[in-house]
Fold:
Amino acid sequence: MQTRFARLYGQRDLKIEEGPVTAPREGEVLLKMAAGGICGSDLHYYQDGGFGPIRVREPIIPGHEAAGYVEGIGPGVSHLSFGQLVAVNPSKPCGKCRFCLDGLPIHCLDMQFMGSAMRLPHAQGMFRDYLVVPAIQCLPAGNGIGAGEAACSEPLAVCLHAVSRAGDLTGRKVLVTGAGPIGALVAAAARHAGAAEIIVTDLTDAALDRAKAMGASRTINVASDAASLAEFEADKGQFDIAFECSAASPAIRNAIAIVKPRGTIVQVGVSGDTTVPLNALVGKELHWIGSQRFDTEFAEAIKLISSRKIDVRPIISHTFPIDQAIKAFETAGDRSLACKVQLTFLN
Structure:
């Protein structure tokens, strides 16, 4: 059996190629892939050849948020059935290092994360028609949802983890800076967690409209109406918690200025080095917390999506077949137009 896949060789050098697919072995399943979302890291690989210190150093198949249908089942797999729609957890911690043994597999020293150029050899991803994967990484989706929705389990898991890092959100006033797919899903996760008020900022109206659909109480376009943020600086800040999803220096400064003393900023967005107003951070005794990836939140994400307690459909803006992968990546790079762009595979 042959499969098509999208392989990236370097900056804007993406090719559709074919290669063989092996039969599933003990504990594995063969998936007929159905939908795969282009993440910010995929886009950085395509546009810039990487981000920060992480560079594409050898050919890589991108894609770490995807769903597919069970096409073949290897020996020893009993929890999945033929034709079942599953979301694929791209994380595979080693289970043996000191962090895994300490209950922190998210910080595994030998993590295999699909579609990541962090390690060498790169971990190959899921933008392909067929994929053989350990069955333990496949979580069944509920009846009645589409493959595109199931493929949003990974980014939603990222956001559920970020929300968990902030503590109890019940009745809290929350700021979300950046209304891309992650910012919009953070707003939805914060709403689900009981936040009383959620204000989302961004530079484009289209992104902010999607944030409203995902649970924002109010949105502010900081490109055209930055002065509206000034009201929140009064009395050393008005927000209990901020989720910084843009990694933009102005957004970080705004978050520090309008979160109240001893409030919390959860840093979700990533970039290279940036300047930070340390005097304000220290003077207000703020908690600035990092958040990366997820662990048990992946299973929670597919349950919330399957029940539509969190409806991810508003963020899915475009779908392209895999043979139009370049067009899909170019579209994903236009934030005035796109939110979550997904590839589709064999019918």
Observations:
- The chain has a mean pLDDT of 95.
- Residues 158-290 form a domain with the Rossmann fold fold (CATH 3.40.50.720).
- The two ends are 16 Å apart (CA to CA).
